[in-house]
């Protein structure tokens, strides 16, 4: 039996969500913050880039043709992080997550054997997150996508405990995908907001989850970190050292920080075969999943070729190519 080739990092654009929030109080301020963080040069490139890729982001037939060209059998499709809208009030946030969950499920239902989906939860309203997760699962989605933080809240916030409980109880897949870096204008040139900001946010968010003891309290969480977990896996030795020598660093998690990497999953999107090999070494070949960031320019158009360039063993290559994701998502082998 051969496992399908599975891409766990692929996005869908949902115009109906943007139509829902258009003109609402708070949206203009959020867009202004996004513009300030990215800078005018980045926005000038990003707009046309997304426009050119719109068919692949919205049309299932175009998506499937692109997957065929890549040799990808199954995608785990998550909403574009631009749909998070963590500025929204409770009422608007409920409308956003319900619409996003239903629209993503409808998109995937056009090719159910090839597309699995993830929904959204309102990270800014912890009291609503369990209900939002349940709604996503009721639509047949595999779980939900979350960012690295919400305004005024890190992922270590105790208010998220009911959500972690419910995610663990249901076996929902959580996809940690940052959107926006709080280093703000320091990264507003040369697309540093993405090239430096995304891996920074991944590392910060994962560190909050590890050092706060979330994974001790919820060892069954199924969390995939986008972008290979950012800077954390390649610099985890510094975290281990701090945990070992400082009482404050080691106060709230029971084990060496590096040991938690083997409880997580990471996508393979690190843009360097040597970094990918290191990720496999520290997390384990059974914890790395193929990821392309389909179809954005900061992804890869040929994720299997990129994986092959890391020169993993045949068994490790097959595990990352699809066997691990097939097991995680309960997909049938071909």
UniProtKB/TrEMBL annotation:
Which superkingdom is the protein from? Answer: Bacteria
Organism of origin is: Streptomyces enissocaesilis
Q: What is this protein called?
A: Amidohydrolase family protein
Q: Which residues form the Amidohydrolase-related domain?
A: 6-331
Note the InterPro entries from the entry. Answer: ACMSD, Amidohydro-rel, Metal_Hydrolase
Q: Does the keyword Cell membrane apply?
A: no
Where is the secretion signal located?
A: none
Listed A to Z, the keywords are:
Lyase
């Amino acid at each position: 039996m051969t496992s399908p080739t599975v891409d766990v990092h692929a996005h869908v654009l949902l115009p109906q969500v943007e139509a829902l929030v258009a003109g609402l109080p708070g949206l203009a301020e959020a867009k202004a913050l996004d513009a300030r963080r990215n800078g005018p040069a980045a926005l000038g490139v990003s707009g046309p880039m997304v426009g050119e890729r719109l068919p692949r982001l919205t049309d299932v037939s175009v998506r499937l043709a692109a997957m065929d060209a890549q040799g990808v059998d199954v995608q785990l499709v998550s909403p574009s992080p631009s749909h998070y809208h963590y500025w929204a009030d409770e009422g608007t946030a409920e409308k956003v997550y319900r619409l996003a969950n239903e629209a993503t499920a409808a998109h995937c239902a056009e090719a159910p054997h090839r597309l699995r989906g993830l929904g959204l939860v309102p990270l800014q309203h912890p009291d609503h997150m369990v209900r939002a997760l349940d709604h996503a699962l009721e639509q047949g989605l595999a779980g939900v996508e979350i960012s690295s933080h919400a305004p005024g809240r890190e992922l270590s916030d105790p208010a998220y405990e009911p959500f972690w409980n419910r995610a663990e109880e249901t076996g929902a897949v959580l996809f940690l995908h940052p959107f926006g870096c709080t280093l703000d204008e320091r990264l507003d040139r040369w697309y540093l907001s993405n090239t430096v900001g995304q891996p920074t946010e991944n590392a910060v968010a994962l560190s909050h989850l590890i050092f706060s003891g979330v994974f001790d309290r919820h060892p069954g969480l199924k969390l995939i970190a986008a972008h290979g977990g950012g800077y954390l896996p390649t610099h985890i030795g510094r975290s281990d050292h701090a945990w070992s020598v400082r009482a404050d660093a080691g106060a709230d998690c029971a084990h060496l920080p590096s040991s938690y990497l083997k409880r997580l999953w990471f996508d393979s999107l690190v843009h360097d075969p040597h970094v990918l090999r290191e990720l496999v070494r520290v997390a384990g070949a059974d914890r790395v999943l193929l990821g392309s960031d389909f179809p954005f320019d900061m992804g890869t158009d040929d994720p299997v070729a990129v994986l092959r360039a890391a020169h993993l063993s045949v068994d490790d290559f097959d595990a990352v190519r699809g066997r691990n994701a097939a097991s995680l998502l309960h997909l049938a082998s071909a």
